[in-house]
Amino acid sequence: MKKRLYLILLTGILSAISFQTSAKEVENATIIHAFREHVESVPYLNEANMEALNTEISEHVKCLQNWSDREAYIKEHDLQGYLDRQKGSLQYYKNSSYAMIDDFLLQYAEQGIENEKACRDSLTAIINDRTGMCETNLNLLERELNREQEQSFFDKIDWTLVIIVVVVLICVIVLISLLSKKQKGGTTQPNQTPVRQDSTNKDPGIIIRRKTATILKKQSLEDVMESPHYLKVDAIDFCQESAVRRLYIKDTCIIDLYNMYASDLADPNNAKENGCMILGRWVHDTESNEYYVSLEHIVMPGDDAVFNEYELNFGGKIKLSVLEQLRKLRRETNMQYDLTCWVHSHPGLSVFFSNSDLNVQMQLKHPTHPNFLTAIVVDTLTPKEDVGIFTFRRDGNINSKAELTKMYSLKTWYTWAQKSLNENTEAPSDSSSSTTVSTSSDGASYQYSSN
Question: Span 194-198, mean pLDDT?
């Protein structure tokens, strides 16, 4: 009986050891595949953002190589600051890659990993492969910034010396010709006079043309500031230190935003996060260092966008739509339209600005004037459809939820927008329009012009 018990116990121990050993056989291929999906969920490291960043950096390098006035281009685009920011972001993710890998592999700690060292090397290679091209392009941009502009052959020529030499040569040739005539008794023969066709031709030099796509259009909001079609929101009403002085939100833009969230209102039990980008214009008051910004046209994301509680990814297709719309607006209006705002919702989660939201804000900001970019967060499941406006402060940091002194209402905005369209669509606005202050049901005051 004792022997049988010992055999049963020994068999159980061996089975447990065998099960534990087999549990550790998590294949590296499975982990690598899961890690690739995890990297794609990181806004900075995802493939669409890397491609857009590489394209942007390559464009700066090409412009530096072909621009007629390098110094003006560098100053206009703050390329040194741009380079420092991009290298800082890239270095941050490279330095934190080991911690990212460690955190990711924790989920396999109990099961174990088939070959942990080889697995770690593969995960590191994935991150290096994703950031490698960006690092190469940044190094090219850095070398181009530090390179002295090479002079062409014509730039190196001392034209004063060339003119003197040409004049001397002409004098020598004329003198030789005169002496030759005297030696021949003063007789002249046709076609004896040397001809120097090249001596009178001016070299046209090298002409470098700027690319028309990069020429800035007119930067103005004159047609917006007094228009009754724009809701005027002063930033001081919701954030004391905002770098944005005032927002001008077009009535049609508000209606498009409201309609975008209509499905949430119709079926609140099945509400989903959603977002878009808004194009408009901006002007910078250099004395006060404040921005005046318009929000005019929304651009919806493509089918590759991902919105959920823990991930915010607009995808790559919306970037193409934004570029296409910007080119169209700039061409048709001759005004400098830009991406001035982006919007997303937190249905039932309240209005706040998360770390994921901050990552999107930093990726979308303008390279030389980052502080005009505005973010709007909407909670579609609150009674008034709460709206929070987040802007950069003057110190370059974005305001938090705790700093918001006021919430707006998308429902109230929508009511104002409908009224604006009904009252102002037929009658054109003129300089004699007056400004009226309207107080909504939620206690918020809005300004609009009426004839």
Answer: 42
Name the more confident of 443 and 310.
Answer: 310
Structural tokens at position 377: 């967060």
CB burial string 315-335: b at 16+ within 10 A, e below: bbebbeebeebbeebbeeeeb
For residue 148, what are the β-bridge partners? none
pLDDT number for residue 17: 53
pLDDT of 249 reads 97
Cα dist. 231→35, 204, 350, 415, 431 in Å? 46, 54, 24, 11, 17
Give the Cα separation of 78 and 367 in Å (integer): 7
From the list 259, 223, 447, 248, the residue with the least C-alpha distance to 335 is 223
Q: Which position has the higher pLDDT, 311 or 321? A: 321
CA dist., res. 105 & res. 120, Å (int)? 9
> Given strand 282-285, what is the order of strands in its sheet?
282-285, 290-295, 244-250, 230-234, 445-450, 434-439
pLDDT digits over 52-100, tens only? 888 988 888 888 888 778 888 888 888 888 888 988 888 888 888 888 8
Domain boundaries, the chain: 2-146, 227-424
**Alpha-carbon distance 34 to 124, whole Å?**
14
Question: Cα 325 from chain centroid?
Answer: 15
Q: State the CATH architecture for 227-424.
A: 3-Layer(aba) Sandwich (3.40)
Residue 150, both tokens: 């090479």
Q: Which two tokens stand for residue 86?
A: 């991009």
Whether pTM exceeds 0.70? no
- Nearest 5 degrees, angle CA 344-CA 308-CA 272? 70
pLDDT score of 368 more than 80: yes
User: Which candidate, 88, 90, 94, 111, places its Cα nearest to that of 34?
Assistant: 111
Q: Structure tokens of 109?
A: 């700690």
Cβ atoms of 257 and 387 within 8 Å: the answer is: no
Q: Give the pLDDT of residue 10.
A: 64
